What does this fold into?
Amino acid sequence: MKRGDAIPDTWATDRQGRPTTDPRAAVEGFLMPFGGYKGYGLAVMVDLFAGVLSGAEYLTRVGNWIDAPQRAQKIGHFFIVVDTARIGDAQWLAARMADFARIVHETPAAVPARPVVLPGEIEMGHLERQRKAGIDVDPALLARLEALARAE
It folds into this structure.
């Protein structure tokens, strides 16, 4: 997508690869990656590293936890570590990261009430609030979790 392009109205494909907005059909098909061909390339690389190379399941081999929540999912993870000291000093990197964040935050939001954020910013806001006020848990859910914990 280029700046100014409309946001696609489909976010998944059905089992036959046709675009769909039906969540039931999407579960049988694939989620479409964000970012066009670059998002597709990134999604493929993530699945190759976290699925194929890790020995875990990948693509359509990943089990459906909704249909069989008791079955092990055999999902994989992939982590990469970059020694940033080999690239530049901490001040240089901090300045570049701050500039990167500024540009992202200044990006006009598709929905003005929901500004553009970086991954993790929403969660860090929740964490800060929860550390001060605690975590709200529905009493029925808490009772169920406690019963499951006792059953183990």
Q: What stands out?
A: The mean pLDDT is 88. Strands lie at 12-13, 19-20, 30-31. The longest helix spans residues 36-52.
